[in-house]
Design brief:
Chain A is built from two helices and no strands. The radius of gyration of chain A is 22 Å and the shape is elongated. Chain B is an alpha/beta fold. Helices cover about 40% and strands about 15% of the residues of chain B. Chain B has a five-stranded mixed sheet with strand order 3-2-1-4-5, with helices on one face. In chain B, helix 3 links the parallel strand 1 and strand 2. The radius of gyration of chain B is 22 Å and the shape is globular. The chains are: A mainly alpha, B alpha/beta. At the A-B interface, helix 1 of A face helix 1, helix 2 and helix 3 of B.
């Protein structure tokens, strides 16, 4: 008797289950992402301390993100 | 064992593979509707349950419809320009209409208190209109001709550059 091969089925199920978990946040739904509390640089003191630690450990600084919030505007 | 697993994957029957592929594409939303483009008729605004009063006379007018939100930085920059265009061209037949997409009406009120404008504002609280139009970025504005067809789509706001484009297109459509 031929052995059943469930590999493709398992792969298909895995793909469907994982890929359907992806979600696109539409441009008009980014109010929460654009909130001030979502900004990585909202606390200047914490940023400068963090920069100091990075510079000491990694011998580099800067290159920290881009301007603007998370609204992805323009 | 790994070799066997790889061989199993390679021997997936063709039909099964297509079914999986189609299922994944549909489920992940690849086949979503596209943003309206130039030449398309703009949907009838009265069918979307917008909050606030729409201008009574829209037929036969050139409309600059702007999707905006209180949390969107470039929208704030665009408001003085929209107000200026409204004041300059309203008498010639231009209607500037702001369609807000905020979740909370309070945010809109606060925004308009800080930046009062005289052109009409409505709120797409249910997001039905913005979903139907499916804009790609905030803000997005549509310039609609007297026949209700889209003549220009402006994605984002880039200060003087966008203003120049608005003026050129509006003056062309008002002729």
């Amino acid at each position: 008797m031929k052995k059943q091969n469930f590999g493709p089925l398992a792969l298909g199920i895995l793909l469907v289950v994982t890929l359907t978990g992806c979600s696109t946040v539409k441009p008009w739904e980014r109010g929460t992402l654009a909130d001030y509390t979502m900004r990585a640089d909202r606390d200047p003191l914490a940023v400068s301390l963090s920069e100091h630690v990075w510079f000491s450990r990694e011998a580099h600084s800067g290159g920290r993100g881009v301007g603007g919030g998370g609204c992805g505007c323009n | 064992m790994i070799r066997n697993a790889l061989l199993n994957i390679l021997h997936v029957k063709r039909l099964g593979l297509w079914m999986v592929l189609v299922g994944v594409l549909v489920a992940t939303g690849v086949a979503e509707p596209k943003t309206l483009k130039e030449g398309d008729p703009f949907p009838d605004l009265s069918g979307f349950g917008l909050e606030g009063a729409l201008p009574t006379e829209l037929k036969g007018k050139v409309i600059l419809l702007d999707f905006w939100a209180s949390w969107c930085g470039p929208c704030k920059e665009s408001f003085p320009v929209l107000e200026e265009l409204h004041k300059k061209y309203a008498a010639s037949g231009l209607v500037v209409l702001g369609v807000n997409v905020d979740d909370k009406a309070k945010a809109v009120e606060d925004f308009l208190k800080r930046r009062p404008v005289s052109f009409p504002i409505v709120r797409d609280a249910s997001k039905r209109l913005v979903s139907a139009v499916d804009i790609e970025t905030m803000p997005t504005s549509f310039l609609i001709d007297k026949q209700g067809k889209i003549k220009g789509v402006h994605r984002g706001f880039r200060g003087a550059e966008t203003k120049r484009a608005y003026v050129k297109e509006i003056e062309e459509l008002l002729k």
